[in-house]
Amino acid sequence: MGLSKTIWTNPTEFLRNQQPENPVLFFSPSALQAAARRFIDGFPGMVTYAVKSNPGEEVIENLAAAGVRGYDCASGFEIDLIRRLAPDAAIHYNNPVRARAEILHAVAKGVKSYSIDSASELQKLIELVPAADTEITVRFKLPVSGAAYNFGAKFGATVELAVELLKTVAKAGFIPSIAFHPGTQCTDPAAWETYIRAAADIANQAGVTIARLNVGGGFPSHRLNAVSPQIEATFQLIDRVTTEAFGADRPLLICEPGRALCGDAFTLAARVKAVRDDTHVFLNDGVYGSLTELPLIGVIDRMEVLSSEGDRRIGPLQGRIVFGPTCDSVDRLPGDVMLPADISEGDFVIVQGMGAYSVVTNSRFNGFGELQMATVLSLRV
Ligand SMILES: *Cc1c(COP(=O)(O)O)cnc(C)c1O
């Protein structure tokens, strides 16, 4: 995978000229910077980027250029990446379980913010991290729905445990904060309200005034034509509820979106390898490639089909079984995918909103997955 220096007008121009046999991800720096500005202008606090959603250097560089000053990192690799590409940015090491060697690496790199969700992992930080000017954030979870995929299954302390952890953090001399993550692609703003009120209860029960409240990622990207993300409404709700719940002890706010920053800045073009006996569509990309997420959190219907000459297919929509290129029968897009009836071998299937959890989870299984990247001025075909 490499990013060529040529900038194309749009995906169609590239596809018509290059006739790529491998899948292509088109990147629009201006779309990414616009997403960053939307958060920086609208969110009532600090905007940080969850690096795991797309750690591409072009992504980090454009976010830094747009004014993103903090990065949520989960590994030594991500910490080193941010130190190299955005040396002055704040690093929040928010993977709540770490090996001791990883903690020492972060300390050596000057990381001053860590999250935990258990007594054992907090104890490791108390032993290895100097407390001065250093924040420890207690991450909690609630049985709240509204997201496409629930992160609470792996991380987050119960409310009762969070109260105890917060007391210990404050007693050990660290700056105490609270975090939650409502789950990814969370289209229900009410999830944030429930969490913020619970965070205020935790601080209250612990008798600790928290410095910051991290309201997570989870902000949605645009996956369905009919559902435009209402991000500003969520920002306003977060602002109002934080004041109501914390009153005079209102903490500073942090958000750490991944998907909502990078998702809509990339568009995928996968090529039709075959329409098998006029029924099944076989693409050169699938669930072991950049479409990994679709079976987990549902389809993206922002799709169009272009002929190899770059003309839009406008036949009536027809449900098709769509397979990826590997020999594994799991390699299939969920359900029936609505595609123009005249879709043909050699066509390009364009999928908008493919920037998050696509490049990073792309595997080389079965020898496929050689993903090419191209920069475009506009993602519209
Ligand atoms: C993955 C992750 C995020 C980003 O989640 P999105 O749903 O992509 O916004 C934010 N914070 C933490 C701790 C995460 O693990």
UniProtKB/TrEMBL annotation:
Cofactors named for this entry: pyridoxal 5'-phosphate
Alphabetical keyword list: Lyase, Pyridoxal phosphate
Orn/DAP/Arg decarboxylase 2 N-terminal domain mapped to chain residues: 36-262
Active site annotation, chain numbering: C327
Protein name in the entry: ornithine decarboxylase
Keyword match tRNA-binding: no
Known EC number: 4.1.1.17
Species whose genome carries this gene: Paragemmobacter aquarius
Chain positions with N6-(pyridoxal phosphate)lysine modification: K52
